[in-house]
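Page 47, continued from p. 46.
Same chain as before, 417 aa.
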Amino acid sequence: MNITAQDGRHGAAAQFRAPGLPSGNSAAVRSPEGALSPGGKVGVTRLVLTDFRNYRSARLDLDAGPVVLSGPNGAGKTNLLEAVSFLSPGRGLRNARLGEIDRRDGASEPGTSGWAVAATIMTRRESIRIGTGREPEGGERRVVRIDGEPARSQAALGECLGVLWLTPQMDRLFVEGPGGRRRFLDRLVLGLDPAHATRVAGYEQALRERARLLRDGPSDPVWLSALEEVMAQQGVAVAAGRRDAVERLDQVCAAAEGAFPRAGLALIGAVEDWLGTMPALEAEEQFKAVLAENRAGDAAYGGAIFGPHRSDLAVTYADKGVAAETASTGEQKALLIAIMLAQATLQRATRGEPPLLLLDEVAAHLDEARRAGLFEALAGLESQTWITGTDTTLFAPLRNHARFLSVADGTLSETIF
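Result:
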């Protein structure tokens, strides 16, 4: 079928082609016609899914107020959040391979059907139509259209909208390896500087190509030098973006008040440290020299032993003066929420608009005081929040402000209290 959206700025039809609809689950929930963003809030006013996870097709027409999704585990609540997360660059809140997202009907092989997400986004400036997905013949290539026009890359989505999320899988962010913290940090930087995604992708592509050349050998020194030039330019830019974001976010966290603890943030990385003592161009030259010197060692290692791909984010519980990884599980959860709220505040101040917030099973792990504090903080952000939970009563304070939807086996219905 075609997912079609009328271009909100130019009047042209915008189509994202998705596969034909096999039999399966479908759902449609509508708001009154003409419902727009209340009070200048930022949010999704229409969301259409096709062959996405356990949804054959689904359509939601909304205003920009909070959306509460309730239902049993495995019903499809997180799948809806994941669909919204694909309105931003990257691989979504599950960091999944695109073929894994295709709806399964018991007959098709994984990765053979393709999926699509289409949405209307209401910002403070305009209405934007977005279509994205994986076409069956496209492999792991993700297609993006904005107001009917093909986007040059996913990075264009970052110019339209910021999206932040917290999921149960992030609960161990502070105690597991640095890779997850780097991805978390890059998501924060992306919210402040949409071009960051392009720089990270450019650096990682050059990093992989250099590793391949060193592995396959003998390597062409001219081509290696060219790749190291790209790594130095993009890597220093990535490090500079991270450094700036962490410094600014740390200041917002330090000034925060409310139900959640103050978090302290610091960046651990040699390239980032260089930028505190030398100009960026000098840091690039130094980085290139290190890469050239390390070629033999990197060939044996199978990658690069030095660079911003090995940096880390250090978080402390500032009020107690202890590292986040030594805090209790509940304190770590509260610190994550504090960082997310601070980032949303900083993004609103920087870009003039707050991000969408996706909170998967967050409220269930908070006591009543912190739940109330969370709901109060979210209300002040002027952005749409999507929240999931199995117990609807936890969200009773939002009853007069949010859209409540029940999710059961990939079908949606209004929640009746």
